[in-house]
Amino acid sequence: MSDIKPLLRSAKEKLAAADITEVDAEHLFAYVLGISRMDLHNSVKLEEALKALGDFGVIEDTFAKLISRRAAHEPLQYLTGIAYFRHLDIEVGPGVLVPRPESELLVEAVLTHIKNLEEKIVGEISVIDLGAGSGALSLAIATEAPRSRVIAVEKSPDAIVWLKKNVARISENVRVVEGDVADVLPGVKCDAVIANPPYVPDNQSLPRDVADHEPHIALFGGATGLELPKRFIDAAARLLKSGGVLAIEHTEDQGAAIDALLSRDFIDIAVHQDLTGRPRWSSAVRK
Q1: Residues of the chain with CATH 3.40.50.150
Q2: CATH number, domain 94-286
Q3: Dihedral Cα 263, 195, 199, 272, nearest 10 deg
């Protein structure tokens, strides 16, 4: 165990030099050992993990390779294969967007809407997730609202792989549909739509972790960033029942523009803040 502290210290220095939070070194070392980050500070569990793996040289080599990849700004979640979202462990990797904790309040609002509907109607509450990606939002709703019936729509074949993997592992009650939001699910009507469209303007620079590794198809929304959100809003208007609710993510600068796009087919439009206090998503009711 005497070798652990200098190993972690060196790794943290390497990450700090790359402007990456030092705590990621602990996350990665815990990942290599197969324990939680908190267990690194439990001498008994740490010793047990080290003994179970045996060859410390192999541990060092594996850890060093992961630190090098993280220092090159490969997302931590891609390295460990897991992103944490609400109460779920979502599997992620190249080809799918890493779910953001900022989306959790959007899910919370939709869950509240579902709970209100459950008091008024009998049977299932239908929810469509447009641009489902890894399935984080779909699966959070499906597991926290048992009466919900969720359809997860995704266009990217790469993201579909991760979506199906997470659905199979967490909740097979989510139906996966591969298709474009413009024409998917003809004739279907639902009670709620959640949407996380690509909304970053094409010319906007992004952090290296995102720009160099996460799929651009899930990030960039056109010249102004609003071209693809408009398609998602049009799809939601087509899919929602009258009185149905849409919750859609956007940048903190797009609230007014999203309001304008929603105003044709929706009422009760409201902009909401995310966990960091930024106006990052809007809700609206279908006319």
Answers
A1: 94-286
A2: 3.40.50.150
A3: 60
